[in-house]
Amino acid sequence: MSDEDDSENRVRAHVFVSGRVQGVFYRANTRDAARDRGVDGWVRNLDDGRVEAVFEGPRDAVEGVVEWCHTGSPSAVVEEVDAEYDDPEGERGFTIRR
Predict the structure, then answer these.
(1) Which residues are part of the catalytic machinery?
(2) How far is residue 4's CA from residue 14's CA, in Å, rounded to a whole number?
(3) Structural domain boundaries, residue 54
(4) Is the pTM of this model over 0.85?
């Protein structure tokens, strides 16, 4: 597969997760889940108690991480996952934002 084919297969998912998702290692587990699947992006806590994340990578891998978000970390209680797909913006690596 050429780089061009790879870039055409990449997608971006902007995700908001609500429920008991702060103080339960959700961000760290999200980072690990994304890295395990070769997905780039970032994750952070929001002031309203939700977690926000951006995932970029091959469609199957991104969809896998979004699906993982419905369960999340072992101590999390996920109530809702809202994901919007768009064109990638060039994220590289995966970080936890403060």
Answers:
(1) 27, 45
(2) 23
(3) 3-96
(4) yes
